[in-house]
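re: ur question from yesterday

yeah so i grabbed the chain u mentioned. its 71 aa long if i counted rite. heres the sequnce exactly as i have it in my notes:
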Amino acid sequence: MLERLDRLQQSDERLRSDVERLSTDVEASNTRFEKWDGRLWGLTLGLIGTAWTAIFAASAVVITRILSGGN
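ran it thru and got these structure tokens back, copy pasting raw so excuse formatting
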């Protein structure tokens, strides 16, 4: 009976150790994801800003050509 109890306690300790390790891994993964998420948002906003700049520049070129007589 004591042997079974010892085995159960050992299994419980191993399970707790595995759960703690998994918890640590999940926390580390979440931290990495948050960093990547922030970087992706920064990249997205940068690309949107670049697109708007290109649109305004193209509009300025078109307006300038129209006002200058199409040359």
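noticed a couple things. Residues 5 and 11 are 10 Å apart (CA to CA). also The chain has a mean pLDDT of 88.
anyway ttyl
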